[in-house]
Amino acid sequence: MLGISQFASTISKMPEQLLDNPQALPHAPDPDVEANAAGGSTPIPQVSINRSTVAELEGRRMLHIQTVALVILAAAAVLTLIYVAKLLLVVILVSILLAFVLAPVADLLVRFQVPRAVGAFLAVTLLTGALGLVSYVSASRAVDFMQELPKYKARISAMGAKIRERAEQIENTTETVLPTEDKNAVTVKQSSSWTDLLSRNASSVSDVVLALTFIPFLVFFMLSWQDHVRSATVMLFSMENRNSAYVMIGLIARMIRSYIVGNFIIGVFLSACSIALFGLIGLPYFYFLGIISGFLSLIPYLGVLLAIVPPLVADLGHLTTPIAALVIGIVLGLHLVAMNVLYPKILGKRLQLNPLAVTIALLFWGWLWGAMGLILAVPITGAVKIICDYIERLRPYGAWLGE
């Protein structure tokens, strides 16, 4: 009887033990474990795959592929738009740069109680008059040079004869290496006059002229409505991002203004040095050539070649090999000083762009927009860097563009 009562008490306590320790429940013997214990091989674990997990992973993979495809299509669409709307975008960006140049003038007039619209009009008029004066002086100097050009006809002919003689020597040398063409073959070349060339390009020239006429009006409205444009641009962002957008726009404006002012200071320095050195070696119109050569040298990559041409052409009648070498040395030396000393000191700290990023930007925008792309590449890249620095997802790209 005692054994039966102990067995009954043990059975009554089993639910409580199972709640406290579920592992106490006896399990059925596992055949794999028994086989292993009996000296059999190691059992292969059975892995169960949830179908819902597989479907979720497949959905994520397809979503990633779709996102990448959309990004590629969007990038291609943006590049196509930038290339097709080249003239429109160049006009807008040039107007923005000119508006930043004239903004201090308009702000100064506003401080003297001049209405902003009147101050913007006076600033645009001042710029238009300055450009007209430069064009008039340039045209008059070009006419003087063309009038003196017949005096140099004999010298130009002699130089042309030397060039043709050298070209014939090179041609005779290549004929001994390369296979000769059939002399009996007849080559037909279509001659084109300047009138045909002008008629073919008349539409493109008219489009450029029409677009350029919009620049003064765009600059005027940008100056007179600058406060409204800035506040309206900030309102395009959500409430939590408006402060960052306001600061970002201010930094872009400061960067563009620093870029323009820095280039102007460097151009004035190069022009002054060029005028002094060209005057010492006796170049005609040295004061005019120095200004042209100094500011042409600011154009990235092509500037140094363009800056050499005006002084060499102006002294064509009295040009000698030592003078030509001296002119080339002066332009190259000033360009190297500007790129390696003045640019890092004046613009490097303000733009905060590394040389590799600048070079890639010049290559990219030059490929898209030509010469104007080379001029606008640096401020565009600087603005892109500032935007990347203020967007959390794009900060790694901003760090890559920076120093």
Describe this structure in words.
The chain has 17 helices and no strands. With 403 residues, the chain is mainly alpha-helical. Among the domains are: 57-147 and 216-224, no CATH class; 225-351, no CATH class. Helix 4 (86-111) packs across helix 5 (116-148). The chain is globular, with a radius of gyration of 38 Å. Residues 15-20 and 22-41 have low confidence and may be disordered.
SSE layout:
Blueprint: H1 2-20, H2 31-37, H3 51-84, H4 86-111, H5 116-148, H6 153-175, H7 194-200, H8 202-212, H9 214-224, H10 226-235, H11 242-280, H12 286-296, H13 303-314, H14 321-351, H15 355-369, H16 371-389, H17 395-401
Helix pairs in contact: 4-5, 4-9, 5-9, 10-11, 11-12, 11-14, 11-16, 12-13, 13-14, 15-16, 16-17
